[in-house]
Structures are given as C-alpha cells and as structure tokens.
Automatic annotation (TrEMBL), chain A:
Belongs to the PIGC family. Pathway: Glycolipid biosynthesis; glycosylphosphatidylinositol-anchor biosynthesis. PANTHER family: PHOSPHATIDYLINOSITOL GLYCAN, CLASS C, PHOSPHATIDYLINOSITOL N-ACETYLGLUCOSAMINYLTRANSFERASE SUBUNIT C. It comes from Gadus morhua. GO terms for biological process: GPI anchor biosynthetic process. This is Phosphatidylinositol glycan anchor biosynthesis, class C. It is a multi-pass membrane protein. Its main location: membrane.
TrEMBL record, chain B:
Residues 451-493 are annotated as: Disordered. Signal peptide: none annotated. It comes from Gadus morhua (Atlantic cod). This is Phosphatidylinositol N-acetylglucosaminyltransferase subunit A. InterPro entries: Glyco_trans_1, PIG-A/GPI3, PIGA_GPI_anchor_biosynthesis.
Length: 294, 493
C-alpha cells in the first residue's frame, strides 16, 4: 500500500501534523489503519441459551391466546362468570403465596410491601372494577363489532410488541395499558355486567400480576421457568384449539418460528457482523456525572 | 484579513519559503454551503485558503447559497468573487438536493469562470456534493475536503456514508485534515488511500497573539470556548468545575459559546454558588475570541470527538497552556510540550488540570511569548495553500472518467442497489446537461471578467520573485520532492 518510490531519508513516518515530514501528503504507511479494531466485544450466542430466552416471548403470545380463549368461552356462554371469578381468585391467592415464598431470595434493600398494603390494593381494584362494570359494559354499545375486534387486535399486538421481555417485573406502561384497553373492549361485548367484571379481573391477573410472578420464578431458577413457559405455550395452543382450530394452527406456527427459528437465524447471521471501532469514534461518557463532592 | 494588513516584513519573511517553481495557474471554484456571513471552521478555512491561493496567482471563485437577502455576486478582499446562488436552505444552512435543480446555476458559474478544478468542502453540505456530481458530468476535475469525523454504527451514519461513497467514488482527489480523519474517510467511503492527502488546517498567528497583561494576577483562569453541545463534552466540564473550584480557591472558569448544554453549566453554577468564579459569556463573534483567550492561563478542551481541533491551536497561539481529551485527531495536532492529553473522563481531566495548575504555580511553564513563537510556525495558511496547489497540479493531469466509465465505477464501487440508482441519476443528469447546452450553448455564454488569477483586472499585483532574506524566520526543512520529482501514483484503477 505504500508508494512505488521509497522515500530517501531513513526517518520513520510519524503520525503527527505539526512537523513537515519528508513524505508526500498522500503517503500510505504500513501503520495505516493499525488502530482499527473489528468486531470487538461482540457476544457469541449459543443456540439453546437463546431458545430459553425466546420461550418468554412465546409464553406472552400464549398468554394472549389463553385470554382470548376465555373470552370466547364466556361469549358463547360455555363458561359462567362465577366459575371464572372463583378460579381467578383461587389462582390469584396461590400465585400470591408462591410470590411471597420466593421473595426472601431478594435483598432487603427495598422496603417490602406489607400484606396489608397488598390486601388494600386488591380490595380497591376489585371494588372499583365491580362498581364500574355496568358502565364498562355499555361503553362500546354504539361502536360496531368489527371496530371493537379490530381495536382489540391492534391493542393486543401493541401489548406484545412493547412488552419488556428482558425484565417483565415492572410491567411497561404501554404494554399494560394496551392489554387492559383491549380487555375492556372485549369485555364490553359480553352478555352481562358480571361477565364484564369477571373478564376484567381475569385480565388484571394475567397481564398485571402474572409477569411479576414469572419474574420472581426466573430470578429464583431459570430452568423451571423455561419449562413453565413451555407449559403455558402448550396450554395456549390447546385452549385455542378447543374452540378455533385454525387459530391453534396459526399460533403453533408462530410459536415455532419465534422460539426455534428466530434464534437459529440470530446465531447463523452473527458471522456477517462487521463492527468497526477506532480512534475516530466519539468517546463515551461512562460515569455517573450526578455524583459530586460535598 | 490580517495577513494582508500587516507590513511587508511579515510577507518577506514568508516569501523565501515559497518554492519559486513556475506551476500552471488553475481556475478553482470552491463550493460549499458554509461560507461568510456564516462563521465557523469550514468557512474560515475556505476563505483563508482562497486568499492564499490568489496570492500565489491562481484564480479562485466561491459558490455558495444565498444567505437571506445576500444574493448574487459579491466581492471580498483581494478580488475574491463569491456567487451567492438562490438555492433553498433546508436545515442548518444546508441546501436541499435533488441532484438536478442546481445544475443550470452551477453550470453558469463553471462556464463563465472557465473553471478547471472544482473543490468542494464539508460532507454536511448538500451543495458540495451536488457540485461534485455536476462537475463530473461536465468533465471537470474534482477535489473534496472533508472536515469532520463520522461514526459507522447508527442508521444516519450508515445512510450518510453510503451517500459519501457514491459522491467520492469517482472524485479525483480527496483532502483530509488529519491522519485520523483520513483513516475515517477511507473506511467510510471505501476509498483507495493513495488518493487521499492529509493537509492540516491552519491558524493565522497574527490574529491570536498573547497578551499576558490581560490575564488577572493572583488568580488562575481556565478558558473554554466551544459550542455548548453534547459532542463537545460539556457534561464532563460540568463535572470538573465543582471539584476543581473546591480544591483551588483561586481558580476561575471563563466559558464562551452558546448551545443547548448551557443549562448544565448554569445548574452547576447555581448548585455550588460559583457565580463569581464561573463566567458564562454566551455566543462570541470570531473577532472577540482572541480577547477572551488572552484573559486566561489554561485552555481546556473537553470534546468527545474532533477531526482537527482548531481551538487548541488558537489557544496555544495565544500563549495558553492546553489541556485536552485524547480523541480523534487531537494527539496529532500539538507536540507534547505544548499540550497535556487526558482520557475523556472527569477524573483524568481533573488530574490533568491539577498537573498544569501545579506547573503554573511553580513557574515551570514557558512564557506565553515563547509558546506563541513555537506555535506560529507550526501551521500556516501559506503552507496549506502550497500543499493544496500540489494537489491541484496532480489532479489536472488526471483523466476525468467519461460517462460510460463513470457508470461502471458507480455500479462496481457503490454496491448493486445504490450504484444502479445513482448511475441512472447520472445518466439523467447528463441528458439534462445536453438539454441545457442545446438551449444555451457554452460558446454563447459571456466569459466573466477575472477578479483574481493571471488575467486579474483589479486583483492584487503579482508577487515579485522572492528577495534574498537573512534566514532568521526561514524554515530549512523544505522537502526535496517539491522541486518536480515525479509523484508515485500511476493511473487510478
């Protein structure tokens, strides 16, 4: 890469501008691009590790499918709201117990919520939802059914897209709100106020509380949580299949592509990665500039 | 321009450094969006370079876009003709580009002025890239100077680098302002490094002279002059100020410049009650910069990225001790005894400042006059003009690719999709040029009267052969290859 005629003087080329050097301005030294670093610090992905993480995405998809299954059952009158309510309550209490049992694993740096505070929150949510369920039931009366279905589908899609998969426990506000909005839209199409209340309680349980439980199980042991997610996926496919076979097939395909196919693509395409770093990069400020003396 | 206004003594001492070999005189058109009345590094670079080239006898005109009501032709010092073309400004003084709409106007400029070399400046300038494109269609030689560093990783960088690749794949020669900038540009546009020259920027040393009497006695003042944006590391500055003001009760900060990060400094000042020790001067005119610089003892630069930092050379020229971050092209700019380089962290910059403050207290630093004397000879505009002239000489003997060759080069070099699209655009551009040539033939266009160059009607008188001078200010290291020795490259592939 150097010039054809060797420069006469024996002084080596230096990367300095203040000194006029006996080389042409367009001289290319063998030290040209010596500080270029390629693909520094990229992660090596292993297939099954990525699959274990991808199962969480599939699990959330199946959660949505299970929710829709419950709604289908309620709408067609095959599931009575009392049964759903009692089941939700029992499952909620069991889940709460499990969450508490797993919680001592976490540090004591935060002020733990007392059981009384939790009971208060639950009571407030349930009472308000029960009180407002007649209002919510008639909310979409003037809206056409197609619009309601389209809105719900869009909102559930938004929920899936914006869900914080890396750390589900503080549920992202957009995902939670989108899911609850979809559930309100769907619940308002059910026959009675009690149906609406049951649906909303179920939605709260699945979209607001289940991710917290899942996060604490993941923190505790990642292996069983992966199998739990697989169980949820199977439950979703099975449940949807019992009412709508086409949907179950679609869901199964989606799950296979998300859980098995996408990790394969990620691992295979890593070899095309070409990151360049060098002295021309903008320096990154790594420290916390809010820390100050005094 | 100061280097004209000073007496002949200055000129004579520089005169014997110019190699008196007769070279052909070029007719150069500098094109960029950024020019006077906008003030900045690129603008002053273009202006100073043009003045020095005119002094050497070349003809220089500048084409830029109209600034407000400033449209048409204007003449600056020395007969520098500037065309302010009425092209719509889009954002941040850069024009919109459609690859076609500026062809008629730029063709007029190139034909009337009988331009032989088109020299475009700055990657941010859409008009510069347009001018390169049209110049190649018209068969003129092209040179491009890049003034900034770019990243590679984010979406805007990927797109900008692709456009730069298209623009530079058949440009005859490229100039960068530092070796780091050369490496960066070669990687961005996938260039052959042999067609990239490194010609640093320069500083007018008569504009930046020291004045030790202005700096307040008994206190140590740190001067920072930069735009107050994230890229200039103002967050780091905000972390340094409280620590150092706490440890050194006689330390003051003088900060010039404006920008969105001013609020960070104001908050720091407010929080630690440093109103009397930290002064924020706001936006500074270029002529006020020297007056601010001489009020300090230390010049601090906290940039996170710089291709060639003019500010540190200006600070050193005013006799200040320079402390800077080690980023981009900064390590190449000043020798180690004139600058202290630090990592871009608060800790490292604080330690660096402490070291320089310690040296100042002990009196272990060179006097401002000594520092200025060293710096004034490091970077001069005449040196830049001489090296740029060599680039033009090299460029003028190169073949400009005909349309067929250009299309092949675009397809091969720029990738399948982008290359094909721009090859199509190049063909359309060529057809548009043919239409314009049919409507208004080249022969029918009046040639403009030269205001500079060999046939200048009212420009500065031609330089006399250099007088013999006691070589006190002369620099003995004139390089041996500037006397016509053949340059290394063969034809470009």
């Amino acid at each position: 890469m150097g010039p054809d005629i060797a420069p006469g003087p024996d002084v080596p080329w230096r990367k300095v501008l203040w000194e006029r050097q006996p080389f042409p301005d367009n001289y290319v030294d063998e030290r040209f691009l010596e500080e270029l670093r390629r693909n520094e610090g990229i992660r090596q992905y292993r297939y099954w590790a990525v699959v274990k993480e991808a199962v969480l995405v599939g699990q959330q998809l199946s959660c949505v499918a299970i929710f829709i299954t419950f709604w289908l059952y309620m709408e067609q009158g095959l599931l009575s709201p009392e049964v759903l309510l009692w089941t939700s309550l029992i499952v909620g209490v069991l889940g709460y117990g499990l969450h508490n049992a797993l919680r001592p694993q976490l540090g004591t740096d935060r002020e733990p919520r007392t059981h009384l505070a939790d009971l208060q929150s639950a009571a407030i949510f349930l009472s308000f939802t029960f009180g407002f369920s007649p209002v919510l039931k008639t909310l979409t009366e003037s809206v056409s059914t197609d619009t309601v279905y389209a809105m719900s589908a869009l909102m559930l899609l938004a929920h899936l897209v914006s869900f914080p998969y890396a750390h589900p426990s503080p549920t992202g506000s957009l995902s939670l709100n989108a899911a609850l909005f979809a559930s309100v839209c769907l619940a308002s199409r059910l026959p009675g106020a009690l149906h609406t209340f049951a649906m909303l309680s179920c939605a709260l349980l699945m979209f607001a509380l289940w991710p917290c439980l899942l996060q604490s199980i993941r923190d505790h042991a990642i292996g069983p949580s992966a199998w739990l997610c697989v169980a949820v996926c199977l439950g979703g496919v099975g449940g949807l299949g019992s009412r709508w076979l086409g949907g179950a097939v679609l869901l199964a395909l989606a799950l296979v592509s998300v859980i098995l196919l996408c990790p394969l693509l990620l691992v295979k395409l890593q070899r095309h990665k070409d990151n360049i770093q060098g002295p021309w990069d903008e320096a990154e400020i790594h420290e916390d500039l809010c820390k100050v003396p005094y | 321009v100061a280097h004209r206004a000073d007496g002949t003594g200055e000129r004579a001492s520089e005169a014997d450094t110019i190699v008196p070999t007769p070279t052909q005189k070029h007719s150069i058109c500098m094109v960029s969006d950024f020019f006077y009345p906008n003030m900045g590094g690129v603008e002053s670079h273009i202006y100073q370079l043009s003045q020095c080239l005119m002094e050497k006898g070349h003809k220089v005109v500048i084409a830029t876009h109209a600034y407000g009501r400033r449209k048409g032709v204007r003449y600056l010092t020395g007969g520098l003709k500037v065309y302010y073309l009425p092209l719509q400004v889009m954002y941040n003084q850069s024009t919109a580009t459609s690859c076609f709409h500026s062809l008629p106007l730029l063709r007029c400029v190139f034909v009337r002025e009988a331009v032989t070399v088109v020299h475009a400046h700055s990657s941010f300038s859409a008009m510069a890239h347009d001018a390169l494109f049209h110049a190649k269609t018209m068969g003129l030689n092209t040179v491009f100077t890049d003034h900034s560093l770019f990243g590679f990783a984010d979406m805007s960088s990927v797109l900008t680098n692709k456009l730069l690749t298209v623009s530079l794949c058949d440009t005859t020669h490229i100039v960068c302002v530092s070796y780091t900038s050369k490496e960066n540009t070669v990687l961005r546009a996938a260039l052959d490094p042999r067609i990239v020259s490194v010609i640093p920027n320069a500083v007018d040393p008569t504009d930046f002279t020291p004045d030790p009497a202005r700096a307040p006695r008994g206190r140590i003042t740190v001067v920072v002059i930069s735009r107050l944006v994230y890229r200039k590391g103002i967050d780091l500055l905000g972390g340094i100020i409280p620590e150092l003001c706490l440890r050194h009760p006689d330390l003051d900060f003088l900060i010039g410049g404006e920008g969105p990060k001013r609020i960070v400094l104001e908050e720091v000042r407010e929080k630690y009650q440093l109103h009397d020790r930290v002064r924020l001067l706001g936006a500074l005119e270029h002529r006020e910069v020297r007056d601010v610089l001489v009020q300090g003892h230390i010049f601090l630069n906290t940039s996170l990225t710089e291709a060639f930092c003019m500010a540190i050379v200006e600070g050193a020229s005013c006799g200040l001790q320079v402390v800077s971050t080690r980023v981009g092209g900064i390590p190449e700019v000043l020798p180690d005894d004139l600058i202290l380089l630090c990592d871009p962290t608060v800790r490292s910059l604080s330690d660096g400042l402490e070291a320089v403050i310690g040296r100042l207290r002990r009196g272990a630093v060179a006097s401002p006059a000594a520092v200025h004397a060293r710096v004034r000879s490091l970077y001069t505009w005449r040196d830049v003009a001489e090296r740029t002239e060599k680039v033009y000489d090299r460029v003028c003997v190169e073949e400009v690719l005909p349309l067929a060759g250009r299309l092949l080069r675009l397809r091969d070099h720029c990738g399948g999709v982008a290359g094909s699209i721009f090859a199509f655009v190049a063909v359309l551009n060529f057809l548009f040029l043919l239409l314009l040539r049919w409507l208004v033939p080249d022969q029918g266009m009046d040639r403009a009267l030269d205001a500079s160059g060999p046939q200048a009607l009212w420009g500065p008188p031609q330089r006399d052969p250099p007088a013999e001078e006691a070589g006190e200010g002369s620099q003995p290291q004139r390089d041996p290859w500037s006397d016509g020795a053949p340059t290394a490259e063969g034809p470009l592939v």
